[in-house]
TrEMBL record:
Family the UniProt entry places it in: Belongs to the ParA family. MinD subfamily.
Keyword Zinc-finger: no
GO cellular component terms given for this protein: cytoplasmic side of plasma membrane; cytosol
InterPro entries given in the database record: CobQ/CobB/MinD/ParA_Nub-bd_dom (IPR002586), MinD (IPR010223), P-loop_NTPase (IPR027417), ParA/MinD_ATPase (IPR050625)
Keywords: ATP-binding, Nucleotide-binding
Gene Ontology MF annotations: ATP binding; ATP hydrolysis activity
Domain of life where this protein originates: Eukaryota
Keyword ATP-binding in record: yes
Name this protein carries in UniProt: CobQ/CobB/MinD/ParA nucleotide binding domain-containing protein
Transmembrane spans: none
Taxonomic lineage from the root: Eukaryota, Viridiplantae, Streptophyta, Embryophyta, Tracheophyta
GO terms, biological process: negative regulation of cell division
One Pfam family named in its UniProt record: CbiA
Amino acid sequence: MLGLKLPTASASSPSFPRNTLNSTPAFLSNNFFSPICINVKPLKPKSKSYSTSLVKASLQWNRKPQLAGETPRVVVITSGKGGVGKTTTTANIGLSLARLDFSVVAIDADVGLRNLDLLLGLENRVNYTVIEVLNGDCRLDQALVRDKRWSNFELLCISKPRSKLPIGFGGKALVWLVDALKSRQEGSPDFILIDCPAGIDAGFITAITPANEAVLVTTPDITSLRDADRVTGLLECDGIRDIKMIVNRVRTDMIKGEDMMSVLDVQEMLGLPLLGVIPDDAEVIRSTNRGYPLVLNKPPTLAGLAFEQAAWRLVEQDSMQAVMVEEEPKRGFFSFLGWS
C-alpha cells in the first residue's frame, strides 16, 4: 500500500502479519497519518531502523483501539448550522464504531425532520419510536432497530415524520431514555450517539442535555464557523467540556488557491481539538441515496477512511494535528495531513 517491501523476517526480529502493507487493512490505526507510516525512507535491507519502522507500522494497523473513559459514552453530534453533515457523520461514525466491535445506539433527536434512518437504509424497519415507549404502547427494546449488517449497532428514533410531540417531551425525557439504555437487561452500550437537530432552540437543548461530550461538525465557510462558535459556548455553559470538531467538505485545491480556509485556520478560529478532516467527496451523495453508509464501501474512499480515523480517535479520546498546506502541489487531500 505504501510501495515498500517487508524485509525477510529472522528469528531475532519481531513477528508481524504477512502482507499487511500490501492489502487494505480492516481498520486503520490512530497514527495512520503520522510520520511513522508515511515518512519511512527506503533504506538497505540490512538496516536496523528500516526493519523496526515497518514492524511498528504493521503492528499499529492491526491493533484494536483502547476504549477510554467510562461507558456508556454519551456523545452528541451537533453544529448549529443545518446541512453541514451531522447526520452523515452520525451514521458513518456509528457504523465505524460497530465495525471495531463496540456496541452503539444512535438516537435521531431531530423530531421534525427525521433522516438518520434513511442514511442507514432502515426506514422500513422503524415500527415504534420513543413516543410509543413514553406512552406505554411498546417496550424500549421494540423501538430499537437493529442494523441488518452489524448486529451491535441499533437505531432509536424520537418520533415518526409528521407526528406531534407531547408538550412534556424535553431534556428530562431524553435523560430518562439514556438511563433506560444504561440499565437494560442485555447490557449497556459502549456508545450512545445523539444526532442533534439544527439550530439552538428547544430541540438543541433537549439533545445536549444527557450528553457528557460533543462532536462539533463544521465546514470551512464563515457562516458555519460563526454558528459553530456560538454552539461551542452553549455546550460549555451546559457543562460539556469535552468538545472535538470534525471539519467536513474540505477541498485542498480551493485551499491552495486561497478560496477556502484551511483546516489550520478553522482550528485557530474555534480553538477546539481536531477529531477528523473529511474531504469533499461525490461518493457521499451516492451512499446517502442508496442508504449505504460510506464506511462500508469496498474499496474504501478517502472520505470513508477519514470517518474511520475519526471514529478511532473518538474511542481513544485522541485528536489529530493539522498542518499548513504548502504552495507546491502534492498528492491531493492527504497533503495537509502530512503526506510528502
